[in-house]
Specification:
By secondary structure, the protein is mainly beta. The chain is built from one helix and eleven strands.
Length: 124
């Protein structure tokens, strides 16, 4: 397992952008990483994932074309660029990691390491 720390959340107006970061003190090189979110009173849902080799990504339909997941293994960081934000994107965003996983598997079963989350609030 790896220790994960999210950052980059905040308050933004509808239509604005934020970039979330997920970092580890270890190495991400063999880990698929996914982003999940949980809004108040709702179940946690999958948002986006990138496989451990970085050549495959997977998104929930509601963020396709607006969010982009990427990774920089040299910096042990995975990013979630969020554009055209909507009030319904408001949630606590968590990153998760699973070794040698595909992006699709991350979406289906989640990670076995999780961060503490970062709050994203989109004002209308």
């Amino acid at each position: 397992q790896v220790q994960l720390v999210e950052s980059g959340g905040g308050l933004v107006q509808s239509g604005g952008s934020l970039r979330l970061s997920c970092t580890t003190s270890g190495t991400f090189r063999t880990y698929a990483v996914g982003w999940f979110r949980q809004a108040p009173g709702k179940e946690r849902e999958f948002v986006a994932a990138i496989n451990w080799t970085g050549d495959s990504t997977y998104y929930v339909d509601s963020v396709k074309g607006r969010f982009t997941i990427s990774r920089d293994n040299a910096k042990n960081t995975v990013y979630l660029q969020m554009n055209s934000l909507k009030p319904e994107d408001t949630a606590v965003y968590y990153c998760a990691a699973r070794q040698f996983s595909s992006a699709q598997a991350m979406g289906a079963i989640g990670g076995n390491s999780w961060g503490q989350g970062t709050q994203v609030t989109v004002a209308s």
